Structure formats: structure tokens, C-alpha cells
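Q: Sequence in, structure out?
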Amino acid sequence: MTHPTIAKPARSHNLRNWLGGLRRRVMRHGDVHVTTDVMNDANPQRYLDPAALARFGLSPLVARLVVEGFISGLHKSPFHGFSVEFADHREYVPGDDLKFLDWCLFARTDHYYIKRYEEETNVRCHVLLDRSMSMAFGTGGALTKWDYACFLTTCLAYLMIKQQDAVGLTLVGAKPGIQVPPRCRGSHLTQLMSVMVQNPPSGKTDLASSLRAVMRNLKRRSLVVIISDLIDDPEQTLKAIRMIGSHKHDVVVFHVLDEAELNFSFEGSTLFRDLETGEEMEVDPVAIRAGYLEHVKELTELYRKRLTEVGIEYQPIDTKKPYDHALWAYLQLRQGLRK
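A: Exactly. Output:
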């Protein structure tokens, strides 16, 4: 997939106005230097850089920046114009909404025509976000797995609402927490973010029990997005996720891991503490690195094999990587729901 250099609204003057307003609003609340970096860098991946965006804090404005920058890269993809499909034209009559006028056709014919669209079936999306204490882990700065997951949730929710999909949020961990029913309106994004900000990670993990409890409340076929580090009994977790898929729900799993969990790049004698139990253990990372990395590889392959074989999308996510892989996975799955 290729990306252009910047998000591209329909007209150039709209682009200038939008970017100018965005700069002013973000600079009032964020780091001016970071804003300049993100807004002016020619590389579109800067729109998706977790480390830079985390310095703004959770914001609908920044979520829009990420999603619009990402969507602009879809101009040659099957997802171009994915909100509604163009159907045909009809002649303009007084009272019609002027935003649907086809100005290109007017330039050719000197007559006013309205573009008509074919509404697509909306999708109900449920985001199941793991808030167990292990999600509070993070290295290389202030960005934790929870921070990354919250921002990913916000970006996905913005994209879903832009797609005219209803999106809801359930916090899971030792048991299901707060549940926000699916809605499809702009103000709903603020409510979702408030729930995440007010409910930081805590407690132990019992992901399997939480997922089974949530599944009992899913009355209609839905798109279920699970965002978790999956630090729990793999067999029980897999059984619960596969059960959701067996009830005709479409499921995508984002397995969020910190770079240190993937590479185990610790040096010297290191004291490790379990964030959920408080148990501590001092080990020599060099002595166990090879075995640890082999275990992580086997675990991710287990999840990949056991989920994809039943049609569940599985995406391992490194918190140092941009958000585009996750957004792309959602669009691919949603595209399949229309067929």
C-alpha cells in the first residue's frame, strides 16, 4: 500500500483551512515542536507515529489527523470512496442540498445535476479493550501498551463512525467492566475516550471469562474487535475468542506487545515484577533470552494458526509501530462484510 504525502480533502482551499485550524487548535494544547514535526513532515507515516502522537494526549483532533492521513493513502485502493457508493445523476430541483451538485458535469453541460448515492449497510462494531494491569507495561518512554491500545481504539472508532458504522466499547479484564453501547455520531467518540481515561488498567486478567460474558450480550451479528496483550492462559483465551466467531460474529484480534516483550533487549541482572500479582524475580536476561524469544514465537504462531484457521483475523502489534496495519486490517475485514 502506498501513501501520499498528506491528507487530501476535496478542495485545496479546504485543505489549507483544515490544516490551519488544526495547527492552531493543537498548538493551544500541545507541544509546538511536535505539532510542527507531525504537520510538516513529508512522510505520511509521521501521521501514524505513536511516540509523537502520544505527546498530544488522547484527542479526537489527533485521531482525525491519523485517520485522514491514513485514508488519503487509499486513493488507489479498493476502499476509495468507501462511505457510500455513487449510483447515478438526476436533474437539480430547488431545495436540493447543494453539496451534492456535480460541478464537473455542470462545466461540461451547463446544466445542474445532483449526484445520487446508494447507502451501504451499516456495521455494528464492538471494541473489547483489555484493561488488566499487564497493559500498564511500557518501555522506551511514557508510551505503555494501554496508551497505545487507547489511541488505537480512538482511531478505529473515528474511522468506524466515518464509515457510518455504530461503534461501542467494553472494558475487559478479570471481568467485564463498563460497557458503552454502539452509537454512530461524532459526539460518541468523546464518550468512548472519557471511559478509557477514567478507567486505567487495574486488577488481574481473566480474559476468557470476560469474553464469554460479553458474548452473551451480543444479540445481533457484529464486528468484534479485541485489543489485548493476551497475557493469560492461551488455550482458554483461544477457546473464548473462537466461540465468539462461532456465533457468526466477525472477529479481529489485535495482539498488542511492547518492543521489550518482543525482543527481550534487557542487559545485566534485572529484577522483573509481575504487574498483576506483585511477584518479583531477579534473572540474567542473557541466560534466558533465547528460550524466551522461542516461547514468544511459538505463542504468536499458536494464536495465528488457531485463529486464522476459523476465519478470525489476527494482527500482532508492536507499540513502536504505526497504526496503519491495524486500520488496514479493519477496512479489509469490513470490505469482506459487504460481499
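Residues 85-118 form one domain.
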